[in-house]
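Office hours follow-up: a student asked to see two folded examples consecutively, so here they are.
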Amino acid sequence: MKAYTGTVGRRYHEESEKLIPDPYLHDYTKIILSKAFRRLSSKTQLITMPNNPHIRTRLIHTQDVIGVSVAIASQLGLNEHLCMAIAAGHDIGHTPYGHAGERALSKFGNKPFKHYVNSVVVAQHIERKGAGLNLTHETLKGILGHSRGDNKLSVGKDAIQEHSVVMFADKIAYIFADANDAVRYGFLKEEPKLLHDFGPTQIDRHMKIVAELVKESKEKGYVDFTESKSAQKFGELRTFMFDKVYSKIDWSLHETILWKLCEFFSKDVDLGIDPVLAVSLLTDREANHFATLLLNQKKPGLEEIKSWGVYEILPHLSGKKIDYSDPDLNWGKENH
């Protein structure tokens, strides 16, 4: 397999491209310097606002995905910078409270809210006061395609291989980490036996699974991890996590808070932006602050949200028709 080196390009030319000629290293730099990337430090991975600093936040998960992606790409001779860019941006459109936030916002907006679509929307239409990060089409397409939920990890031989790298790296990172944190927080009494099949420690597990993925991919000539014994065991571990952990956590209170926030942005404070999109940009900390105001029987108003980071963003988006369900990537076809 060969590293992806070409590019469809960006929506518009920037002089800064001369400073970092590699388009994907440029994308990576833009993403890690963005506000959306910084907000990930206060967004849920498995546990909301954990007191234990060793429990992963969405930012730590993202850093894990970057690391696993590079480990895979380097051994397969693929484009590490493209993998880094996709991995850095793959969750920047995530909601407060993780996937519970997606469910709540889907109900309020009466259409599916998908964080992987919104990540592309944030990159193109939210960052830089609405001007967007102006990322390459390949990075954006990789962000869009990283998520499979609990579905099968099917891949295509003709796909950009770096896209598949990040898709698998994301699953590896969150399954191992979430199992580890589920025990640390008490959702599981002990680590599942399936986890031990990959090694006694987190670093051992990552090293083994990366080695097995690289081996299977080299044998097939494209990135894949679905048929080996290790891949089958990993599939069983994913099923275990969805059945015994993710589906068992009570998110009802968090969903109620987000519903109230949607009502707040649609009735009490109308900044001319879709309330679902506005809420998706909040951090867990801001959502929790809002809940505290409600518990204190204080009706929140504009003054309360002026201290929130999101208030730096929302006024610049007022009146713009931004659809969080539309990745808006047709421009890439025009550039071919």
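And the second, which I mentioned at the end of office hours:
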Amino acid sequence: MSQSVTAFAPASIGNVGVGFDMLGLALEGVGDRVAARRTDEAGVSIAEVRGLDGELHSKLSTDPEHNTASIAVRALWDDHGAGGIELKVYKGIPLQSGMGSSAASAVAAAVAANALLETPLATDELLPYALEGEKYAGGGLHLDNVAPSLLGGMILCPPVLLPDAVRIPVPDGVSAVVLHPDLQVNTAESRHGLAQGYSMEQWLSQQGYLAGFITACITGNIPLIGKTLKDVVIEPQRIAAVPCFQAVKDAAERGGALGVSLSGSGPSIFAICESEVASNLAVAMERACRGQGIECQSWVSSLHAPGAHVEP
């Protein structure tokens, strides 16, 4: 049985625009890592948290009561572990970026700790434990970052299906471009600011777009993705917090994007496009963001990005 292990969990696009709290997409090339090792002292502890620069993180706590990684592991360890476990968290996702930063830490920690169990659980069985960590950060049962980070790909994960999450087939030749402006949006505060009531017209429109988008993904109907990747309910309420949003969206649409929206609560902005235009689209989105006086970075990802895994 291993005494130490490191796991990687990818960033993710929550909501995927059209599916608020119900749809998520894993991303290639960016994520968090958590190293876990067995200890003689009972309980779960965090030795250190390091940021994007490799230095000790100035904002994230090493108190196991206040870190999504340790909260997820404690839930798993209480049910299946024995002895103690120590974590080291290496952040690769900017905080409050709308890219599932807290979820990735929880997922990577759960996957690493699971590998130290005498009889590890199946990957999908880790979802409730990773969700315990995400609940601390997000204040509720929101699977749209945790599920794709754990399982990979495009995931349908409305809370009413708990503990299940459904992998949605996606077409080849389609990519996601994610742009992260140098801004922060607090997810919990953003949620509190949302309207509590919506018109029947809004509800029916958004239901139609979600059903059409899922159908388009499953059938590989790329033009239909372009017709249905729309958010008429949540996006209009959140874009004021992201001053570069409209400029970036306009640039992406001119560059051939099938659809553009906020990633999670923002400030990150994502576009779905045919893969052949993805690199140029990323450049255009970055140029538009910087044109608003805001620095940024971007990533291009397949829609088939793998989920969390133990690293060799």
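Two things to take away from it. The chain has two domains: 4-168, 174-302. The chain has a mean pLDDT of 95.
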